[in-house]
Each structure stands twice: as C-alpha cells, then as structure tokens.
Amino acid sequence: MRIMGLDFGSKTVGVALSDSLLITAQGLEIIGRKEENKLRRTLARIEELIQEYEVTEIVLGLPKNMNGTEGERVALTREFAEKLERRTGLPVIFWDERLTTVAADKAMMEAGIRRERRKEYVDKIAASLILQGYLDSRREADCTAEEPAQP
Fold first, then answer.
1. Which runs of E-coded beta strand occur in the chain?
2. 111: alpha, beta or left? (left if phi > 0; alpha if psi -120 to 50)
3. How is residue 150 annotated by DSSP?
4. Are residues 134 and 59 in contact, defined by beta-carbon separation less than 8 angstroms?
5. pLDDT tens-digit profile of 94-141?
6. What is the set of domains in the chain, with CATH numbers?
7. By C-alpha distance, which of 76, 42, 47 is closest to 61?
8. How far is CA 142 from CA 22, 55, 66, 100, 138, in A?
9. How far is CA 19 from the centre of its chain?
C-alpha cells in the first residue's frame, strides 16, 4: 500500500510516492502537459503509476491563495480531482499546498542546484512536500488517538 502525492499545474503535474510504511515521501516524476485543458494523457500516466506502485490513496495539493480564499486554480484542481476519482476509483484527499513551491525552491538553493535547473525539479519536490505533510499529519493523528487518557 502506498499513497501518491500530486502537485497539479497548468503545464506539469509533479508526482511523489510514499514508502510502503507510509513514513516518507519521495519525488517520482514530472508529467508534462501539452495543453492546459487536455488531461487524457496525464490521467493515463497517473493510472499507470497507480497500478505499478499499488497506490491506494491520492493526496492532491490545493492551491489556495495566501489569505485562504479559493481562486481559479482551486476550481481547476477540484475538477481534476473529480476526473481522477472517476477514472481511478481511488479517494482523492486535498492538502493545502501554500508555500510548498517556495519551500521546494529553498531546498534546491540549499542543495546547490543552479537556478536554471530548478524548474526541472520544483514540481516533483513540491509533490513530495505535499505528501510528506499529509503523512506527518496522519502519523500525528494516530499517535494522539493511541495515547491513554490522563487521570
């Protein structure tokens, strides 16, 4: 069992996968999109990865505005999620992705990746950050639920 993380954009979709123990997220690939309103090839590739890695759940970054409001990108992301659920039959969980691209850029700067090469990695790293945030949240919720009540 693995969980897939996605960073959905107008030109690319970053893909990350959890390990089988659901502890860590690793960037897998970036799916290029020829046209913003065409999703058939993108969905087909995601479906292939789901089968190959035995994915049981999808976490999709929700690109809210910094003030928490939802704009046009959120509407497009929700539409993509509906198509994804219909095509794969898997649940799609939304995860707030604010600042993941900024964090991904910072991580690449610290790793010494040159500015011109960062675009090659940013969506995959952002997908990893989205998924890792979700995995950490699940683990924290499980730990809280298992703690005995204090007398």
1. 2-8, 12-18, 25-32, 55-62, 92-96
2. alpha
3. P
4. yes
5. 998 876 766 666 776 777 777 776 676 778 888 998 999 999 988 887
6. 2-146 (3.30.420.140)
7. 76
8. 12, 20, 29, 24, 6
9. 14
Which residues neighbour 53 within 8 Å (Cβ) at sequence distance 6 or greater?
2, 4, 17
- The most confident of the ranges 5-14, 47-56, 116-125 is 47-56
Three-state secondary structure call for residue 72:
helix
Distance between CA 18 and CA 39 in Å, rounded? 24
What is the reported pTM? 0.84
CA 76, 82, 85, 86 dihedral sign is negative
CB 25 within 8 A of CB 5: yes
Distance, CA of 97 to chain centre:
8
Rounded distance, CA 5 to CA 24, Å? Answer: 11
